[in-house]
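Look over both lines before class:
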Amino acid sequence: MVQKYQSPVRVYKHPFELIMAAYERRFPTCPLIPMFVDSDTVNEFRSEDGAIHVVERRCKLDIDAPRLLKKIAGVDYVYFIQKNSLNSRERTLHIEARNETFSNRVIINEHCCYSVHPENEDWTCFEQSASLDIKSFFGFESTVEKIAMKQYTSNIKKGKEIIEYYLRQLEEEGITFVPRWTPPSLAPASEMSSSCKKPAAPLAVVVPDPALKEGLSSEPLSTPSGAPEPSVGTPDDKLDADYIKRYLGDLTPLQESCLIRLRQWLQETHKGKIPKDEHILRFLRARDFNIDKARETMCQSLTWRKQHQVDYILDTWQPPQVLQDYYAGGWHHHDKDGRPLYVLRLGQMDTKGLVRALGEEALLRYVLSINEEGLRRCEENTKVFGRPISSWTCLVDLEGLNMRHLWRPGVKALLRTIEVVEANYPETLGRLLILRAPRVFPVLWTLVSPFIDDNTRRKFLIYAGNDYQGPGGLLDYIDKEIIPDFLSGECMCEVPEGGLVPKSLYRTAEELENEDLKLWTETIYQSASVFKGAPHEILIQIVDASSVITWDFDVCKGDIVFNIYHSKRSPQPPKKDSLGAHSITSPGGNNVQLIDRIWQLGRDYSMVESPLICKEGESVQGSHVTRWPGFYILQWKFHSMPACAATSLPRMDDMLASLQVSSHKCKVMYYTEVIGSEDFRGSMTSLESSHSGFSQLSAATTSSSQSHSSSMISR
C-alpha cells in the first residue's frame, strides 16, 4: 500500500531571496540533521542570464535502523538523488528527490516547493508532498515502512527550525537582505557590489511573538515591507500551518497530511457545501486518522445532513412549547477549558411524558438542534479564548432518576438518539460529568453503554451522592462562580426545572406517527434505489420549449450512469419494480421504471445528453435547456465498471468500491426542478454563473452547446 504525505502551507515571513540564502547553507552537509552525512554535486546547469540554476546532488544518509536490518540489507548508508531547480525570475525553487538505494524494492518520491506568498511578496511559502511504496524488503516490509515514516516525520518537524537557524546565522553575519534577480543589462551598479549588507531588520520567524504563541493577540505582525497582514489561507484555498495551529490545534505532520488529503478529496468529489475544517478533523480523530474510514462515515453524514436539511435547523425549526417548558436542559456558560457547558437535569425530566406528547422524532430533532448550537458555540469560544475549542462539556444531574426513566419506549428513543449523534457529531463531547448517580443508574448504564463509542466512554466521570463536592470533583472542571444553584453553587441556572408533562398534552399513536412522518419528510430530496437491470427513472413534461430542467443529486452507494431522454409520447404509468429480493420500501428508496422494454432508442425516444458516469460519493448539479416540448425522462442506471478515476487516496479504494457494488445495488438522493421559459431570463452563461459558488470547491463545469446543457461534476 502506498503511503502518502501532503504538508500544509508553511509561511516564512521573509523574502524569497533571503530564504534561499539560508537554504543553500544546508549543503554539502547539515549538522542539524545527523542522518544527513554528505552530498556531492553530480550535475549543474545555469542559464546565461543567471535566472535558472539547476543542481543535482547525490545525498548520503545514515538511517537510524536496527543493525540487524542493515546487515541483512547489506548497506550502511542509503543514497538519494535530489534535483533543485531555482527560477530566480519567477522566484520559485522546486525540489525533487528519489531514492537510489533499493530503488527496485522501495520507491520514495518527494516534491517540495518554495514560492512567494500570493498576498505579500516579501513572504515565502513552503509546501511538500511525498509517497512511499514498499514492494518487497526481505520480509521486513512493515518494519521498513515504520522506520521510514518515523524518520520522515522527524525531519519534517526540523525543516522550519533549520531554516530559522540559518536565518539567525545570516543575521549574526549582518546579512539581512539579498537583492532580487534582475536581467544583467538592467542590474544597477550598486547591486553589482559584492556587499549585500544592510541595516538589520527584525526577524519575525527568529523572535516569536509571545502573544501570538498564546493565541491572544489580534494585532498584525510587522513585516519588513510594512505590507498588510494577509488573510488566513490562499486563493487556492490551501491550509496554512499557522491557521492549523491557531484554529485546529497541534497536529503531527501525518495528522496534518490526513486532514489536507481528506479535505482535498471532498473538494474534488463532494461538490456543494463541505464541512468546516474542524468538523473534518473530528471525523478523522474518531477514526484514528484512518482516511478511508473517516471518508466513508463523513460522506454518509453529509448525505444525511443534506436530506434532512440539518444545516438550517437552527433557522427554520422552532421547538414546540412542550419542549421549551419541560425539557430540563440548556446551555450554561463554559468550563475551565473554555468548552461550552450544557446542563441536563435528567432526573427531573419526564421522558415518558415527552415521548407521549411529542414522539421520538421531535425529541431527536431537538437534540440535533442542541448539537448544532454546540458547534456554533465552539466556533465562538475559539475566537473568544484564542485557542482551538472543538467540543463541549455536558453536566448531567441524575437526582430524581428512578424506574420510570427506564420506560421501554423512552430508552428506545434514547438509544436511537445516541446512535444518530455518534454517527454525525463525532468527537464533540469533550467531557461528561454525571452527578448524584442513584442506585438505579447501573441498570440504565448497562442498557446504553454498548451503544457508546469507546473513545466517548473514556470521557465519562461519574459521581455518586455528594462526591462531586470533594477532591477531584466539580471544582476541578468548572469555576466556582458558575456552578448552578441546584448543585449548591452561586450561579442562577436558567435551565427549565422539568417536571411531569400533563397527560392532557399526550397524543395518540396515530397522531404521533403522522407527525413523525411529517418531520422527516420535510425535505426537497427524494431517495431511489438503482439495481442492475432496473434503473430509476422520473418523468418531466415540458409544454414550452426553452424551459430549463435542473437537477441536484448525490450518489450515496455504488456507481451510476445518468441519462436524459426525450419522447413525443408519454410512457405508460410508472411501474414499481416487482423484484421481491430487492425489498424496496419508502422512504429508504424506491425504484420506478418508465421506459417500456419494447421501446427502441431512436424510434420511440432519443438521448439528449451524453451519458454521465458518476462515482460513489459524488454530488452532481446540472441543467438542460429543452429544445422541444414533450416528455423528458431522467434516468439513473447501474454502472458495472469498477471505479478507476484518479484520486488522492490509495488505489485500495477502487478494490473496496468494486466489492461494495457487488450486490448490484446503488442508491441516489435527488432533487429536480423545471424553470419555465417565461421565468427564465438570460443565456446559458448566466445560468452557469448561478453555480459560481462551487468554484472554490474546484468544480469542473462541462457544457454542451449542441444539447444546450450544463452539467457540473468534480472528478
Observations:
- Residues 141-172 form the longest helix (32 residues).
- Residues 189-236, 577-588, 643-662, 681-715 have pLDDT under 50 and may be disordered.
- The radius of gyration is 31 Å.
- The first strand starts at residue 3 and ends at 6.
